[in-house]
Amino acid sequence: MKNGFTLLEVLIALLAAALISIMSFDFLSNTVFLKERIDNSISSDSKHTKAFHLMRLDMMQAVPFKLKDQNFNNLNNVFIGSNEERILTFVALTASDTAINNSKLRRIIYKYKNNNLIRTTTLANNENIILSEEILLSEIENFEIYFGDGLDDLVDSYPGLNLVENNIFPEFIVLNYSINDKNYNQIMGFFR
Known about the structure:
This protein is of the alpha+beta class. It has a domain at 58-138. Helix content is 28%, strand content 34%. It has 1 helix and 10 strands. Strands 1, 2, 3, 4, 5, 6 and 8 form a 7-stranded antiparallel β-sheet that branches. The chain is elongated, with a radius of gyration of 28 Å. The termini are far apart.
């Protein structure tokens, strides 16, 4: 009696092992690719959610504090919004600021610049002293922002000519934009 495998049996075993290896590699490479796509999607959604949560929090903490321009002249407005580079400017009482010696009032400035949504905080009366600046979202395209006291009378700058007396903040802010060919429509506001 001879012990061992014939050449044909060894070749069949090698062929079966090669087929299993090829199928496993294809499955694993697709799994890795899918994992990367899911991780990128989760990261993008997380940044997007964080950015608009921060914007809503700033709006909730907004106070009717009269703004001054860079030359310290009174503007007689507590909120300025436009479709220019600087899209939102207002003052908020930041509860997260732990500075004891300084006022907790901060001027909040949101800018749309180079396809980025940027949040800047400065001193309430002196925007030349920048306390923080952060890019919240990038790769934004087709950005538009509108303001109004109702969703049927939106304008692209605030305050506008039809400003209702004693209504210093718009009730609604509507943002339309796209990121990576995905369109977004955000409705926010100062409900006071």
